[in-house]
Design goal:
The chain is an alpha/beta fold and 244 residues long. Helices cover 25% and strands 33% of the residues. It is built from seven helices and nine strands; from the N terminus they run H-H-H-E-H-E-H-E-E-E-E-H-E-H-E-E. It has helices spanning 7-18, 21-24, 37-43, 66-71, 85-97, 159-169, 199-207, and strands spanning 56-60, 77-82, 99-107, 110-117, 127-131, 144-150, 170-180, 211-226, 229-242. Strand 3 (99-107) and strand 4 (110-117) form a beta hairpin.
Length: 244
């Protein structure tokens, strides 16, 4: 079974995207700077002052939609796309209903009922969510002033296929926002399709013909599995500008 269609992972991602700080990490000594990753990848990587009127945005691997909703603060149209029907369904429910209940695993069989809510100020009328494959995007998507892809590349079986499509997706002068923990695993990506060296060097080699690297920063994030177990990772965050 695809893990991204399980109820447990759906609940985990709803907490990751929408959980309040105390709901995710009640421990005083925990890595609080790693919270709100789905929001930070937009607000910390995007050059907000360089967007044209009526900007379009594409959120690839949008999961349950938090980054897509954040992008509506800067774009008049946002398409959120994910391979998981479960994730897309949750994002659509949030857009239509404004909230969605889910279970946070605490320990063993114990859980807590929580509610994910739309971020204040998000413009749901600007969003559209669809199921799709980032390696084989549908024709007719058009061009975008912002393409955002967080924690997606190392979950694709052939990430080079997406990289080859990016120059056609990002309009001249547009921004490509990438974040990846560089966690290459054969359960997602055959080893033959991994970068030969560092992910950073691989991206520079693949993208520099059509993009300029403007910003690079480390972006920690935290995924809670249960009350006493977390995944702490540091994504490589990048902003690339499409050459004109």
């Amino acid at each position: 079974m695809n893990i991204y269609e399980t109820r447990r992972l759906l609940d985990e991602y709803l907490l990751f995207h929408y959980g309040a700080a105390k709901e995710v990490l009640p421990w005083e000594r925990g890595p609080h700077e790693a919270l709100n990753f789905a929001r930070r990848t937009v607000h910390e990587l995007l050059d907000k002052d360089a967007l044209p009127p009526g900007a379009r945005a594409l959120d690839l691997g949008c999961a349950v939609g938090r980054s897509s909703f954040e992008l509506t603060r800067f774009a008049t149209e946002v398409i959120g796309l994910d391979y998981s029907l479960s994730f897309v369904g949750a994002a659509r429910t949030l857009a239509h209903e404004g909230c969605l209940d889910y279970e946070r695993l605490d320990e063993g069989r114990a859980s807590t009922l929580l509610r994910a809510s739309l971020p204040e100020g998000a413009r749901v009328e600007a969003t559209a969510f669809e199921q799709g494959d980032a390696m084989s995007l549908r024709a007719g998507l058009g061009g975008f002033d912002i393409v955002h892809a967080a924690n997606l590349l190392c979950r694709l079986s052939d990430p080079a296929r997406l990289l080859e499509r990016l120059p056609d997706l990002v309009r001249p002068g547009g921004q490509l926002l990438l974040a990846t923990p560089c966690t290459w695993l054969e359960e997602f990506t055959p080893a033959a399709n991994w970068p030969a060296g560092s992910t950073r060097d691989w991206l520079k080699d693949r993208l520099s013909a059509c993009f300029t690297l403007e910003l690079e920063k480390d972006m920690p994030f935290l995924i809670r599995e249960h009350a006493r177990k977390y995944q702490w990772s540091v994504a490589l965050g990048m902003r690339w500008r499409r050459l004109t």
